[in-house]
Design a protein that fits this description.
The chain is built from 5 helices and 9 strands; from the N terminus they run αββαβαβββββααβ. A hairpin with a 5-residue loop joins strand 1 and strand 2.
Length: 205
């Protein structure tokens, strides 16, 4: 059985893509607040389903995020969001872990999850397409490969994705991913608890 090992990386490692608009302003405000507490931002998203929800996805440098971590992040960023008043209507604050089928937002994410299946999108055409699906391979400081399910001249096709052209990437939930994540240094029940998505939900405004 393969053993998944998440290598802790610096809290200062930048994300590969940045939000824009209100989401970007929220990210700019909370990122400096998270780091002193030992956390880093994964993603900010404003959702209008069931009212307005501000979704903050965060993690520790080791990639783990417990319920207690989510509660601490919520308490840390709530006063800052109130003071900055970036959203002009009532909303729910939702703090969560990245989950098992997590977004990949830093170079180290691709190194840690090399060999697993990813869905990725790029800002430019690469081999006549912008959307890709396959196993992560050949990760280096400039980019990574995606081993697709397509066959070219009897060989598996590997597409090279430069990080500079990446707009979105997310792990695909598979039995292997779930199994390996559950055996990643934690007991199965604890790991499931730590990777459950929605952790804390507060009404603000």
């Amino acid at each position: 059985m393969s053993k998944l090992t998440i290598v802790p990386t610096s809290l200062d490692e930048p994300r590969l893509t940045q939000e824009t608009g209100v989401e970007g302003r929220v990210a700019a405000v909370i990122e400096p607040v998270l780091k002193p507490s030992g956390y880093r931002l994964v993603r900010v998203r404003l959702s209008r389903l069931s009212g307005l929800t501000l979704q903050i996805m965060a993690e520790r440098a080791d990639g783990i995020m417990t319920i207690e971590d989510c509660e601490l992040v919520s308490r840390t960023i709530s006063p800052v969001l109130d003071a900055e008043d970036l959203i002009d209507r009532q909303y729910h604050l939702e703090v969560s872990s990245p989950g098992i089928d997590r977004p990949l937002v830093r170079k180290s994410d691709f190194a840690n999850w090399q060999g697993y299946i990813v869905k990725a999108e790029t800002s430019v055409m690469i081999g006549s397409r912008k959307k890709f699906h396959g196993h992560i391979t050949n990760v280096d400081s400039e980019g990574f490969g995606i081993e697709t399910n397509e066959i070219a001249y009897g060989e598996i096709l590997v597409v090279r994705i430069p990080f500079i052209n990446l707009t979105k990437a997310r792990l695909v939930l598979t039995d292997k991913l779930i199994r390996d994540a559950l055996h990643c240094g934690c007991s199965p029940n604890r790991r499931l608890l730590e990777m459950t998505r929605t952790m804390t939900n507060l009404s603000l405004k």
